[in-house]
Design a protein that fits this description.
Blueprint lengths: L1 H25 L18 E6 L18 E17 L2 E8 L8 E4 L3 E8 L10 E2 L19 E7 L4 E6 L5 H6 L3 E7 L9 E10 L9 E3 L3 H5 L5 E4 L12 E4 L3 E10 L4 E6 L3 E5 L7 E4 L1 E4 L3 E8 L4 E7 L3 H5 L3 E7 L13 H5 L8 H12 L4 H15 L1 H4 L17 H5 L1 H10 L1 E7 L2 E7 L7 H12 L11 H10 L10
Parallel strand pairs: 1-2, 2-5, 3-11, 4-9, 10-14, 13-21
Antiparallel strand pairs: 2-3, 5-7, 6-8, 8-9, 10-12, 14-19, 15-18, 15-20, 16-17, 16-19, 20-21, 22-23
Helix pairs in contact: 6-7, 7-11, 10-12, 11-12
Bound molecules: copper (II) ion.
Copper (II) ion binds next to loops.
Amino acid sequence: MELQSLRGALQRTRAFLGLAAIAFMAAPALAANAPAGTGDFGPPRGEPIHAVLTSPPLVPPPIHRNYPAHVIVELEVVEKTMQISEGVNYTFWTFGGTVPGSFIRVRQGDTVEFHLKNDPANKMAHNIDLHGVTGPGGGAASSFTAPGHESKFTFKALNEGIYVYHCATAPVGMHIANGMYGLILVEPPQGMPKVDHEYYVMQGDFYTGGKYREKGDQPFDMEKAIDERPTYVLFNGAEGALTGDKALKAKVGETVRLFVGNGGPNLVSSFHVIGAIFDEVRFEGGTNVQKNVQTTLIPAGGAAIAKFRTHVPGSYVMVDHSIFRAFNKGALAILKVEGQPDKSIYSGKELDSVYLGDRSRPNLEAVTKATESARQGTLTLQDQVKAGEALFTGTCSVCHQANGAGIPGVFPPLAKSDYLAADLPRTIGIPLRGLTGKVTVNGTQYDSVMPPMSQLNDDEVANILTFVLNSWGNPGGQVAADDVKKSRAQGTASTAAAAH
Ligand SMILES: [Cu+2]
C-alpha cells in the first residue's frame, strides 16, 4: 500500500522531470545547476552499498560517487539509561544508542533500503518518519516495529538537503522527548564543497519529574511536556555532551560545517555561536544560502547547515540564544579553536568564565565522586572541598573571583571574610536566598545585590560552602546537605542584610 503510492508518486515525478533527468545523465556537469527535487537519476547501479552511520558529533565521510546506488541502512532502536546531567539518570529511547540518533548520509537519487530493528530488550514499539522520504508518513506506517522485530522499506532520495528523522509512534511527543530523532543528509549529486570539519549537533528539549540538575533517576514528565515547560534544553542529549574534553575542535583558518538539527519536541531554536558569524547558512536545510548570519532559527523538526571559517583561537560557545535555556537548562556546547592569534582581527584576552560559567571547568570528576560518596554514606570533608571547588568555579567566581578576593567596592571578599565566619546559619542562607542591602565585610561596606543561586541543589550548596570555609584563610568547618535543606525549608523571606 505504502510502497505503491510511493511508486506512484515517483512515477509522476519522473514523468514531470524526465527531461531534466535525461539531460543530467547525458551531461553530469549540468547537475550543479539542476533545480532541487530533480533527484530521480534512474534505477540504482552497482553493488548494494552499506551506509556508514556515525554517532554524534561525527558525520560520515563525503560520498564521492557519480551514480545512483542501492544503499542499505540498518538502524537499531535501543532504550537505555544514560546521564542527562551530572549525577542525573534518564531512560532515553534512541536510534542507534545515542541522542541524537546515528547520522545517515546518502546521495540524491539513491535508492535507500531501510532496516529498522527494535532491540529485543526494549519495552516499546517504535517506527521512523524520515523527512527526506517522499511517501506517506515518511516511512512511519511501513516501519512500525515491535521489540525483537525488524521492518524494511525502500525509498528513493529525491530531494537533496538535510532532513530530520524521528519516531512517530504514539504518544509521538513522548517518543521524541525521549530522544528519538536524528539527521539524514541527502548530498547533491555533485557533492558538497570541501571543508576541514563537519560536525553533527542537534538540540532537544527534555522533561523530567525533578527540577534542573536534581540528582538520581528522573522519569519523563508528561504534564511538563504538554505545557512546554522543559527541565533541560540540550545539544546532543546531555548537559556537557559537547564541552570540556568533548568540545568540538578546529584550528585557526579552518572551515567548519555544522549540521544542526532540532528534534524538539516543542521548542524552536535560535541557534547562535558566540563570537562567530556564519559565512553561509542553508536555513531550514533548504537550497537557498543566506550569508553573514548571526543567529539562525531552527524549527522543531527542522535543520540547517551552517558554515564558517575560524579566524581567532579560543572557545566558541554554541547556544540557543533564548538565553535562559543556555545558562539554566543546559543548551550550551563549545567549539575549541586552536592556533595562533591574529591581533588584527581580535585583540586577545580571553575570559572563558564570563560566558561558560560552571561549564568551563575541564571535568566534573570531583563532583561525580562526591555524589557517589554521598549516596554510599562515605562522603568526606575532602570530597566536599574538591567538589565545592569545581562548583565554585564559574558559579560564584564570576563575582567573588577565583581566589575569593572579590572586586573592591562591588563584590565583597569571601577570603578571610569576617561576615561569613560570624554566623554559619546566616551564611548558608545566602546562596539560597541571595543577599541585598548594606553589609559590612572586613570593615568595608557593600550595598549591592547578590541574586539567589536557585539553580544549585542542597548538596551543591553544601559542597561550595564547605570549600569556601576551608579556603583562603577562612576558619574551616563543614556544611551538610541536610543543613542546607533545613535552611531552605525555614527561610522564605530574602536574607536582607539590614534585618540582622
Ligand atoms: Cu519510538
